[in-house]
Amino acid sequence: MPEKKLMNKNSPKDVVTDKTPTASAATPVAIGRKDPALLEGRRVLGMVPGKPVAGQRKEPAEDDMVMVYPHLLVRHAVAAMSVLLLVLLVAIFFDAPLRAIANPTVTPNPEKAPWYFAALQELLAHFHPLIAGVLIPGAIILGLVALPYIDRSVFILASHRKVAVATFTTFMVVWIALTIVGFAFRGPNWGWVWPWQEWHGEL
Amino acid sequence: MDVMNSGESDLMGRVRATRVGRSIWRTPKKVTPRDRAAGHWSSFALHIYPVKVRKAELGFKYSWYLGVISTVLFGSLVVSGVWLMFFFVPSPGQAYTNIQTLQTEVPFGQYLRNVHRWSAHLMVLTVAMHMAKVFYRGAYKAPREFNWVIGVVLLVLTLLMSFTGYLLPWDQLAYWAVTVGTEMAAYVPVVGDRVQSLLLGGNTVGQATLLRFYVLHVAVLPLAIVVMLTFHLWRWRKDSMLDFDRGEPDA
Predict the structure, then answer these.
(1) Does B24 touch chain A if contact means CB atoms closer than 8 Å?
(2) B62-242: what fold?
(3) How much is the CA Rg of chain A, to the nearest whole Å?
(4) Rounded CA separation A175/B180 (Å)
């Protein structure tokens, strides 16, 4: 089970063998790394819910850490101001669309959902509405919610969780393709159009 | 460290050292790193941040700053949105003319509407990208599973926010996009028709729909986002050190 693996990998012995070239050097390093609160064979402190016990914890190296202020904050400030600048510039050059006043008697053709629902609308053209409009979106949301409880391995690197990465990537590629098709490649009566010939995308 | 942090040699330091200053900023003189950590710890503005982070988390590559960017866009939407509310009445007789007046007569009206519109589209994009980035980084792994779930809820709320806002200008684009969207609700087994009429407040998109979408858009959903976002950030903050507790086993 994952938990067992995790404990084995993080046990003091493993940490030591990772860092020391010879077996004879293992003992002093092991003592040095021991948590002072950890008496031989007994755990006195370090029982925090959700955390491994003190002796099995990986402690960050002191020089691995930097103060959030200013190091992270300055980067966040730059990111924040860059995106604000982008929005403020785009808003100068592109106006938000406003079509004719809503008229329930005149149905535009094509009738388009906002772009983030274009993939769903494209699916509606191929499947029964119960499947495309209810079951598929429901399954996507449930799948996303359940993801961390399905993929419970300790592996973090993408190369070590190939099944999860392949599944998620496939979903993303299909979803983005459907969105692009629904947004830009569909015209009157949901027929196929080339976006460079007829443009029907709406933002 | 330098003048900035030494406490009293600059203007800000002198202000802080006064009796009133000390009552506002309960921070010690910033001499040692420990003092600066204590200053961070006691700062209201910084309380959502941990005091220290790993160097690896600083760079663009780690997160693409998508969480920060999404939050900033939400802020931009709240500011521009509240401003738009001053000029808007959610009724089919007035909504469309309000937008026209806003665009032609209100100073910066068109501009702020643009800011709101493009921020909204961009936010949908960045929230979705944030999810993808977190997935590929493996940051949904224990102990952060539940924060991923909160993130999915936030994505759904963002989409609902965007969709409810789409109707408000009451033009053909809005009307028919919402007609298409709400027709789907009718296909939910058993309760579909009731869900649809609950959303629409009738059989078709009309006065009741506009009011419902408006209330959802300016009150219910933003509050829900604020609550969930607070929770999301609180979990992020509390979990910031947990990463050290588990490691990538050797391949």
Answers:
(1) no
(2) Cytochrome Bc1 Complex; Chain C (1.20.810)
(3) 28
(4) 19
pTM: 0.83
Q: Are residues A40 and A55 in the same domain?
A: yes
Q: In degrees rounded to 5, what are phi and psi of residue B52?
A: -130, 150
Q: Give yes or no for A92 touching B (CB within 8 A).
A: yes
Asked if residue A151 and residue A73 are part of one domain, the reply reads no
Question: Contact at 8 Å (CB) between A162 and B163?
Answer: no
CB A54 within 8 A of CB A38: yes
Contact B135 A168 (CB under 8 A): yes
| Closest residue on chain B to A145 (Cα) | B149
In whole angstroms, what is the distance from residue A39 CA to residue A58 CA?
Answer: 18
Partner-chain contact B53 A71, CB within 8 Å = yes
Structural domain including A67 reads 63-95
Tens of pLDDT along chain A (203 residues) come to: 444 444 444 444 444 444 444 444 444 444 445 444 444 555 555 555 555 555 555 665 666 888 898 899 999 999 999 999 999 999 999 999 999 999 999 999 898 889 999 999 999 999 998 898 889 999 999 999 999 999 988 888 888 899 999 999 999 999 999 999 999 999 999 999 999 999 998 88
Locate B99 and state its tokens: 């937008």
Pair A126, A176 in one domain: yes
Looking at the complex, report in whole angstroms how far the Cα of residue B226 sits from the nearest Cα belonging to chain A: 18
From the CA of B169, how many Å to the nearest CA of chain A?
Answer: 7
- Tell whether B35 is within 8 A of chain A (Cβ): no
The amino acid at residue B67 is G
With an 8 Å Cβ cutoff, is A149 touching chain B?
yes
Kindly state whether residues A117 and A39 are assigned to the same domain.
Answer: no
Number of domains in chain A: 3
Together in a domain, A54 and A69: no
Are residue A16 and residue A85 in the same domain, yes or no? no
The pLDDT tens digits for B222-231 are 999 999 999 9
Residue B151 sits at the vertex; the CA angle it makes with B148 and B153, to the nearest 5 degrees, is 120
Please identify among residues 48-67 of chain A the ones whose CB lies closer than 8 Å to any CB of chain B.
50-52, 57-60, 64-67
Classify A91 as helix, strand or coil: helix
- Do A178 and A192 share a domain, yes or no? yes
Which of A113, A157, A158 is facing B180, going by the closest CB pair? A113
DSSP H or E stretch at residue A42: strand A42-43
Task: Write the ipTM.
Answer: 0.88
User: Do A54 and A81 have their domain in common?
Assistant: no
